[in-house]
Design a protein that fits this description.
The complex is a heterodimer of chains A (486) and B (95). Chain A has 486 residues and is an alpha/beta fold. Chain A has 15 helices and 11 strands. Chain A has one domain: Alpha-Beta Complex (Amidase signature (AS) enzymes), CATH 3.90.1300. In chain A, helix 4 links the parallel strand 2 and strand 3. With 95 residues, chain B is mostly helical. Chain B has a domain of 37 residues: Orthogonal Bundle (Histone, subunit A), CATH 1.10.20. Chain B contains 3 helices and 2 strands. Chain B starts with a helix and ends in a 7-residue tail after the last strand. The chains are: A alpha/beta (486), B mainly alpha (95). At the A-B interface, helix 9, helix 10, helix 11 and helix 12 of A face helix 1 and helix 2 of B.
């Protein structure tokens, strides 16, 4: 058994019993990255020297018998839109190819407090805009299950690194599905927490009312461990929720008896691959066998979610990305003739096509004369979508469906057709608009590629989401399937 | 509503982007396709529906008005493409 197959709790015990050292864990990661990343392309920046130094310090601490944090000695990868002091953070963009942050994001500080080790920064779609990771300005990430296919986006590097056994867990960010969809395509576990549960301070903003950081792991227990470490109020983030953080690990009881599950008919209708639908129906039988009950429900505004999302997310992006002006950081055009020329040419040289497209769409939607027709209208439809969820959650504990309508598609297959690419997020976007938590767990394969099951919960009810996901994976073991590459 | 080449140029100007002729052509087609798709929202009657800009009830976060040390200038300028005498440098704004 590879050390990467161990659960974080097992690693914790082995470290405690001196069966394993932190230095060994770090070397395993570095070797696996060095052996496989020329094929996968998950990492943009490696922190080899820093990780080795930290490992020695933690091993010394272990020998001295000091206190150990929740993630003591566990090497992690961080999506490259989460800032890390002194460790290059590019957001997958040429604009920031030389950007060395001067502070840590709150989640990075929290991982540090929990004594995890940052191995490096993970590839992503530029500024988190994309559903395939082909929009990275550096290189496309490849799916470890089939190198000709995409890993999903925008946290494709974060999901592929876990699937390829390069690192023990990663952090991603999810705006419209960017943790859950790549987790589904790569056969790993991806959790989008409730909006506001995890601080966004130090996350380079894409769409501020939707972005959320969350863990990508090999199994649900590890997901609960990482969430425990990163959740909590942060007064540096004005959108951080001030709620009590429960014990997520104690929620993993295996008991789902009597749990009421709603299955939206819209998530299993037109456009859903028949094999994906079949895996989801099989998963529901597993829940039935464990004593849960499920019924078909309706989220009637689902078909409007993608249009709503792309108007709102692009509008917020056009505003957030205004800060990239070539003055304080990032790319700067040569010999500008005046300030406006500096802004225009720096931004045009620094941003890729998808980012420009979304800035253009957002600027148009927010511009005089179109604001009410597009932006305000989309915000009103967002209310209707949120009400759909509120109504179902009056009667049901969870909503379950597929994470994505298909398995991973081939590189280049959808790259010239943004609208088709956007439709891949039909099952994840409504959840983001409603701000509720959801996890993607592996539920089998279709023609050798992983299929993701999405389990959606009430706001701040991550415990029930994790409990159901853990019960399912304990019963089925699909999370133990690994791509041949690793 | 459809987007014309003039609209693309106007929006690019508002967004502080300089687009090539090829990009203008590409965005004209793609933005028209996306906005046409977005018009399906007009199928819904949203009269009287409050817009949701945020799912959380947001409140201002206030802190005590206390003087604290600022970031050192060398750190602030660490990533500046061009700086001079402790300032970010830009082309002359006034001639």
């Amino acid at each position: 058994m590879s050390v990467f197959d161990l659960r974080l709790s097992e690693i914790h015990n082995r470290l405690q019993n001196k069966q394993l050292s932190v230095a060994e864990l770090v070397e395993h990661s570095i070797k696996q990255i060095s052996d496989s990343d020329d094929k996968i392309g998950a990492f943009l920046t490696l922190n080899e020297a820093g990780a080795r130094k930290e490992a020695l310090a933690l091993d010394a601490q272990l020998a001295a018998g000091g206190n150990r944090g929740l993630l003591f000695g566990i090497p992690a990868g961080i999506k490259d839109n989460i800032v890390t002091e002194g460790l290059r953070t590019t957001c997958g963009s040429k604009f920031l190819e030389n950007y060395d942050p001067i502070y840590d994001a709150t989640v990075v500080s929290k991982l540090r407090d929990a004594q995890s080790i940052t191995i490096g920064k993970l590839n992503m779609d530029e500024f988190a805009m994309g559903g395939s990771n082909e929009n990275s300005a550096y290189r496309a990430v490849r799916n470890p299950w089939d190198l000709e296919r995409v890993p999903g986006g925008s946290s494709g590097g974060s999901a592929a690194a876990v699937a390829a056994g390069q690192v023990y867990f990663t952090l991603g960010s999810d705006t419209g599905g960017s943790i859950r969809q790549p987790a589904a395509y790569c056969g790993v576990v991806g959790l989008k927490p409730t909006y506001g549960l995890v601080s966004r301070f130090g996350l380079v903003a894409f769409a501020s009312s939707l972005d959320q950081i969350g863990p990508i792991t090999k199994n649900v227990e590890d997901s609960a461990y990482v969430l425990q470490a990163i959740a909590g109020h942060d007064d540096r983030d004005t959108t951080s929720a001030n709620v009590e953080i429960p014990d997520y690990l104690s929620a993993l009881t295996g008991d789902v008896k009597g749990l009421r599950i709603g299955v939206p008919k819209e998530y299993l209708g037109e456009g859903i691959d028949p094999q994906v639908k079949e895996r989801v129906l099989e998963a529901l039988k597993v829940f039935e066998s464990l004593g849960a009950v499920w019924e078909e429900v309706s989220l009637p505004h689902t078909e409007y979610a993608i249009a709503t999302y792309y108007l709102l997310a692009s509008s917020e992006a056009s505003s957030n990305l205004a800060r990239f002006d070539g003055v304080r950081y990032g790319v700067r055009a040569d010999n500008p003739s005046n300030l406006l020329d500096l802004y225009r040419r720096s931004r045009s040289e620094g941003f890729g096509a998808e980012v420009k497209r979304r800035i253009m769409l957002g600027t148009y939607a927010l511009s005089s004369g179109y604001y009410d027709a597009y932006y305000k209208k989309a915000q009103q439809v967002r209310t209707l979508i949120k009400q759909d969820f509120d109504q179902v959650f009056e009667k049901y504990d969870l909503i379950i469906g597929p994470t994505a309508p298909t398995t991973a598609f081939k590189l280049g297959e959808q790259v010239g057709d943004p609208l088709t690419m956007y439709l891949n997020d039909i099952c994840t976007i409504p959840v983001s608009l409603a701000g509720v938590p959801a996890i993607s767990v592996p539920c089998g394969t279709a023609e050798g590629l992983p299929v993701g099951l999405q389990i959606i919960g009430k706001p701040f009810d991550e415990q029930t989401v994790l409990r159901a996901a853990h019960a399912f994976e304990s019963q089925t073991g699909f999370h133990n399937l690994r791509p041949a590459l690793s | 509503m459809s987007i014309t080449r003039n609209d693309v140029e106007h929006v690019a100007n508002l967004a502080r982007l300089e687009l090539s002729e090829q990009e203008k052509e590409q965005f004209e087609g793609q933005l028209n396709a996306i906005l046409k798709y977005a018009e399906k929202l007009n199928q819904l009657d949203t009269d009287g529906i409050e817009p949701t800009s945020h799912v959380l009830p947001l409140a201002n976060v206030m802190r005590d008005d206390k003087v604290k040390p600022s970031l050192p200038i060398e750190k602030v300028l660490l990533n500046a493409p061009e700086d001079e005498d402790g300032h970010f440098k830009v082309p002359a704004v006034l001639e």
